[in-house]
Amino acid sequence: MVQSCGRLIMILSTERSGSTLLAAILGGNKRVVAPPEMHVLRYADFSAWRQAKPEAVSSLSWVMNVLGEPSSPQELDNRFGGLTTEDVYRELLKLCGSDQLLVDKTPAYARKDDVLERIEKLEPFYIWLVRHPLAVLASSQDRRIQRYTEERNNTTNLALKVKLDLRRALDRVWRFRYGHYRREKLRYWCDINVRIDAFLTALSEERFIRIHYEKLVRAPEEQLDRLCAALGLDLEPSMLNPGSNVPEPLAWGLGSEKVRAHSSINPQIADRWKNRFDESLLDKQTLKIMERLGVE
């Protein structure tokens, strides 16, 4: 049972659903601490997390720095070494003020039931973020190609450059054109959202809220009024300027860096996928889940 100090807010979604944007929006509220992806609760204890996700230590360091605590990796190891990851969060929530909210948005949490069960021991409030599956697919394709480009530009190894060029070409010609990547990603979208649905509907309705990405970017003030009411927050103007709320450690593997460009919330990004895909690509299973979740 979490002590009555800070409150944990958990964002659940698939990757590329806009969780980085939502976290940056929430981070614009002075009562909210919203770091880049933490990944901590994917692992049973602090040591396992440190070994498996060394890049995520910058997220925990950022949180500790915001809370006015020692924040170097060595100091974190000394403070949290030997603790379960649930106890790491209990310590963080003790450090938060009684009116503070700690947001954790790590899409990988929703991949496994045992991780969701670990999270539930902390009794958080959940935000279920849902985005149209073809928008998720388009964003995933773009990020995959962007990653090849970044890796190619960051190496002087000719053999690696050639390998990356071949992988990018194979993606475009084979995986993307012939639908392998699409089927894989749509199946993943279904699996993750079905798992979240089963998990959250077993809880009381007061424990979670479902937010649709498209509604959020088209009518941000309306959706944020709804979200802030659920979280007990005031809608502050800075929340509508997410690019100014991005934590400094945000990098590849810890969220989408594209959020830095959002000086405001652009409604046009909701429909960009329509220039590339048509809903006739969706199978019956995906359409059925979309209907259940209220996806337009």
TrEMBL record:
SUPFAM superfamilies, per the entry: P-loop containing nucleoside triphosphate hydrolases
UniProtKB keywords: Transferase
MF terms (GO), sorted A to Z: transferase activity
Pfam assignment, any one: Sulfotransfer_3
Protein name listed in UniProt: LPS sulfotransferase NodH
Organism: Desulfopila aestuarii DSM 18488
